Fold each of these.
Amino acid sequence: MSETSIVAREAEHFGALAGDWWDPKGKSAMLHRLNPVRLGYIRDWIDQHWHLDERTLRPLSGKSALDVGCGAGLLCEPLARLGAEVTGVDAAPELIAAAREHAAGQGLAITYRACGVEEVEGQFDLVTAMEVIEHVASPIAFLRSLAERLAPDGLLLLSTPNRTAWARLLTITLAEGFGQIPRGTHDYDMFISPEGMTKLMGDAGLKVLDMEGIAWSPTRGLHLSEDMRLNYLVAAARA
């Protein structure tokens, strides 16, 4: 078995947030603000990659999806509603328990497992890992594990903070400092630049299809943008 991507202290940190993960005004409120932005990008790339009609309500029907670092299911549930057969994995058992409970209450059949991606068998049409790579033991090993679980015509989508002074200011100094994000969530040394990500992707046998920023402004809040200084999304496929 491959060496685990899980960092125990990270799993403990996020597991402690399980109680109010689904509360849009709770400790994970920032994720609730991020999720619609991510979903807009995900939907766009689902349509582009598989040449689908953007008006289709269930574009992932007949396709499998793996969400790595799924938390309590904020992304898994929309993917299921888009028609995918969804598997969500997370290092924190507390989050998986919360995910299962919430999905049951919504009548959604989602497979949840408390484990690292290395323990997942099979391949998936869509693999997502949102705000995860900056929390793993080895980013390159993590990307290789994602690549191994990506079907030949599959699509990989991930997001992560950029390695900039702007990202450190907004994400750590301000957001964590003023309680918008729980303290200790981020380590600037683990942030990856788009250039660094492109190299890592290539080393992992992946090719970058697209990168787009997630920016913030007082008038628009979090939104998709050409400005990647704060955070960015990546679409990738097998090289």
Note: The chain has a mean pLDDT of 96.
Amino acid sequence: MTMFRTAAAAALVLGMALPVARPAGAQGIPKAQSPEEVGFLSTRLKNLSDRINEGVKNNELPGAVVLIVRNGKVVMFDSFGFRDKEAKVAMTNDTIFRIASMTKPIVTVAAMILMEEGKLTLADPVSRYIPAFAETKVAVPKKKDDGTVEIALEPQARPMTVQDLMRHTSGLTYGAIGANPVKQSYLDMKVNDRGQSNAEMAEKLARLALLYQPGTTWEYSMSTDLLGRVVEVASGMPLDKFIEERITKPLKMGDTAFEVPADKKARGARPMKEGPKNEVPAVPDVTEKFTWRSGGGGMVSTAADYARFLQMFANGGQLDGVRLISRKTIDLMTADALPPDIKMGADMWRFAALEPSARMGQGFGLGFAVRTDVGRNPLPGTPGDYYWGGAYGTYFWHDPKERLFVVYMMQSPAARLRYRYLMRDLVYQAMVN
């Protein structure tokens, strides 16, 4: 089988179809003259390329795009394998991916823009924007005399806040079959119905019991979906329009939205058959349009577009003369926001080494996980780095102390954890200065 690999030198300066030799200071992120210029060894970067090519050859993943930036310069921008393995269409650097939960940082930035404009504060109760949440109850297990457990409903000990939505301490959860009555109720209420509006989704969630008291437990959840509705109420605009006008257009992220037009369909990445049943996972086509603008996982993007978003963070909130948020807002977002007495939800096993818990040397900021300590986590990194990924396989991290960020794009749910680990290992081993 032939492996396909295109280099940055043949393709894009980030976000624009321009020669890589474009000088520093122009729009886009300039390409380093060589990896060695910014502290990498070319010979060791080959370990990364070889491992991804091996994965394609061994049917571990269909293909991928890797983009590494250090000191504001592109170290590596390469594509591997297939955009559509069944059709034998090669992966290219401009391939568009469903980014799933990598939507969350973008929606959180939208809320922070509104914070800076005085249209919301992180301490606000969610009920200020969605009044029905003032009456939302908490499900509390009660053991009966005969040893059985029943669920009692109790008032919120303190109101769910906007900050709780950003850091996943709201008491909300995700639906799961048979896990417990609260998770099952999400499925019964069809809170993920792609034909609903954000307003309808929020009203459904408000009628369901919370899994935990707000502020007590980190539980990965529909919190950012609900935050998307808060953005709509506070801004007076639909979520997708606000993101387009205030984030993607200013940052020239032209392939980032909740879907792309039909003329970009051919650039969409497709998954391959995988998993124990050897089935094609249900990854929506990048042109498929849903009424529900999921703030927790509904967007599409490219590696180059998402790198521009991260470069804005690396620049302290601005890019190419456009300021989105302040440096202090970024400081707040990238600090560990979890209280010292926080509990972890029951399903932490599925995060493995990426679990945002103190025992793993990690926490959670506003929109993504953050590393807090050295040594507790099996993956290399630096205290202060932050990261998140999407269920369909995409992943990023930003290591401010090393002036490094990495975007990894693929559409392979089954391989996502394995390749997040490999990317950390293989990027840092190639960085020698």
Note: Residues 320 and 370 are 26 Å apart (CA to CA).
